Amino acid sequence: MKKLSLSILGLLLCFYLLAQQTPAPAQSKAIALVGGTIHQGNGSVIENGAIAFDEGKIVFVGKAGELTGEFESIDTKGKDIYPGLIAINTTMGLVEIGAVRATADHYEVGQLNPNVRSLIAFNTDSRVIPTVRSNGVLLAQIVPHGGTMPGTSSIVQLDAWNWEDAAYQTDDGIYLDWPSMYKRTGSWWNPGPIENNKDYGTRLSEIESLLAEAKGYGKGKNATTNLKLEALQGLYDKSKKLYVYVARAKEIMDVIELNKKFNFDLVLVGATDAWMLTDLLKEHDVPVVIEKTHSLPSRSFEDIDLPYRMPAIMKDAGVDFALTLGDGWDSFWDQRNLPFHAGTSVAYGLTKEEALESITLSPAKILGIDDRTGSLETGKDANILVSEGDLLDVRSSKVTLAYIQGREIDLNNKQKDLYRKFMKKYGKEVKE
Predict the structure, then answer these.
(1) Which are the contacts of 417, defined by CB distance < 8 A and separation ≥ 6?
(2) What is the DSSP string of 213-229?
(3) Residue 302 in contact with residue 308, Cβ under 8 Å?
(4) Which residues is 57 bridged to in the sheet?
(5) Any idea what the Cα angle at residue 328 is, between residues 198 and 286, rounded to 5°?
(6) For residue 243, what pLDDT is reported?
(7) What's this model's pTM, rounded to 2 decimal places?
(8) Domain residues of the chain, as ranges?
(9) CA separation, residue 138 to residues 32, 132, 184, 270, 401 (Å)
(10) pLDDT (tens digit, 9 = 90+) per residue, 257-300?
(11) Which class in CATH covers the domain with range 83-180+219-373?
(12) SS3 of residue 179 by DSSP
């Protein structure tokens, strides 16, 4: 009992230590950022520009000399202004320490849980969030993992008291982990040969049966409520999108073939072999969320730089895409490197503005929130970043100001605190 009491006390202490930063209050006065270079996120760049916002909304974007009205002016001359970055497909706020199961709340028991809502498990006091936010990620789509159909995703803004305040768009999509045609044998330290998955056809039949049952459930008068089938109804009325984790070319073809029967708003996530099927993806207007361009190719015969070139391949083929650092259950802390993955794509075929769009306006379009955010345009939410250097360049990027819906966000985090602490310990000058 004593050990249990100490454990509970330790857990409460951890929660206390986590709850350090106070969310910013609502915008109270009109603000204008004047003199900087504005990267709108839609391909347009305005030199010596000005962007003004009031009550959380952008009211002016243009040349500094054209700005009129009463605003608190902030000099951004010599700096760059960007839309807030959007992280798709992440467990941020659902996992705190990957190796500690007690801090992970990203999956439920069972294979089919479309009714599980990731949003209500979102921890706004996570210490990971400020480290990601300080590199420009202001919005995130948080997703569940585990099983064939792990649950429902939601979109959050990353400065809030609780999950209700954080909700930017609730229950935007259903996630489906497509079964693999192949399975590995052995273990990671002693791998065996790759074999055909004999259960592949059976698993596909189960998925199709569930979707067909949900369609029938939606058309009928039901004596009892089935929460799992209820959760899937948004796919049929288009209020939710179907996000499918899939990798191989034949599997991608099977996903698209299945979707012909249901006509869902389909998004492929991962889609390692998407480069082989660009014509098919364009024909069916299926966007792709590309995961971790800083990766090795999946096969020995593929070009070593194929993952780096994937964004340019999609762009040249006219396939809508967005970048993310999502890669299973550990896709939380590494989202802080999102702008640098986009920056690498510039060296492999994209322009700087196209790379920026892949982590701002493109994810906003895929998520269905581009009418509110993703670019710096009049009428949209004031989700804005100011950087002293190129946001996409790890050598010069330094976010100095950030606003979510017009609220100035605290850019401090635990890592910055440790930096200052140990610089002072050794008598070094602290460079903010």
Answers:
(1) none
(2) HHHHHHHS--SS--HHH
(3) no
(4) 54, 381
(5) 75
(6) 97
(7) 0.91
(8) 83-180+219-373
(9) 20, 8, 38, 22, 12
(10) 999 999 999 999 999 999 999 999 999 999 999 998 898 998 88
(11) alpha beta
(12) coil
